[in-house]
Amino acid sequence: MVSSNISATRAHKINDIQNLKNMKKLVMLTCYDYQMAKIFSTVGVDIILVGDSLGMVFQGDSTTKNVTMEQMLYHVEAVSKGAGNIPIVGDMPIHSYADKEIALENAQRFVEAGADAIKLEGYFPETISYLVEHGVPVQGHIGLLPQTYESFKVVGRKPEDHDRLLKEAKEIEQAGAFTLVIESIPELLGKEITELVNIPTIGIGAGKFCDGQVLVINDLLGMDPDFHPKFVKRYANLFDIISESVRAFKKEVKNGTYPEKENVYE
Ligand code: KIV
Question: Which residues line ligand 1 (CB under 6 A)?
Fold first, then answer.
């Protein structure tokens, strides 16, 4: 009973997010587990994205191309237990929206697992309008598309790509998407897209003019010293902090100072 009430509140918030364009900046972060969702819920971010980036930061692959529906649903279920009333977007993995019927079936599985909306990578306006008609809110995603691109680089610098992205953004909006993620494009193109569409744009490597920003939480926290693209700002260095704690535990176990008196049962 409680969870269905929470879910109704979140679904309501998804609808409200669209109206926040030009009102306030949106904060979206990726999340893959219960405890992090609980932190986001305490802080109060606007949207939680259970991104297929988990294939890279959680599973250790070099791409998102091997992530499956089952893996995504597992993480959505965990996140939904900690998210409180923060709306959750589930990221449709590669092959899960091969046609619109498959997309609807999988989107409904996301909703059953606890997502309030889904994100779909690429230019698929027909699929988006089909999902929206069937009651599933959709977040679009254009620019760099990790599921299909060969390498991670800025897109939209060539005139033909610039024009294509503007067209895609408008058609995805017209198909009924409630927000649009734009990834790795020049800042001024991010501005043009943001001014062109009436739904909030959420940028990742798309500059400061977007209506909101999203980062992969592991990048923001500095979990991997070997991964530092230009668009990421590190707000912490958890790699070092965690390493220090593990080192201290190791030392105390080896020298017998852990457990201490207060850590043992009488
Ligand atoms: O999978 C993901 O985390 C994403 C974000 C980078 C937008 O799609």
Answer: 30, 49, 51-53, 91, 181, 204, 214, 216
Residue 146's pLDDT band (cuts 50, 70, 90): very high
Domains and CATH numbers, the chain: 8-235 (3.20.20.60), 238-266 (no CATH)
Q: Is the pLDDT of residue 252 over 80?
A: yes
pTM above 0.85, yes or no: yes
Report the nearest atom of ligand 1 relative to the CA of 119: 8
DSSP conformation letters of the chain: -HHHHHHHHHHHHHHHHHTTTTTS-EEEEE--SHHHHHHHHHHT-SEEEE-TTHHHHTT--SSSTT--HHHHHHHHHHHHHH-TTS-EEEEPPTTTTSSHHHHHHHHHHHHHHT-SEEEEES--HHHHHHHHHTT--EEEEEES-TTT-SS------SHHHHHHHHHHHHHHHHHT-SEEEEES--HHHHHHHHHH-SS-EEEESS-TTSSEEEE-HHHHTT--TT---TT---S--HHHHHHHHHHHHHHHHHHT--S-GGGS--
- Model pLDDT, residue 189: 98
Q: What is the atom index within ligand 1 of the atom nearest the CA of 216?
A: 3
Concerning whether 105 is annotated as a catalytic residue, the answer is no
Catalytic residue among 183, 192, 244, 252: 183
pLDDT tens, position by position, 187-202:
999 999 999 999 999 9
In this prediction, what percent of the chain has a pLDDT beyond 90?
A: 92
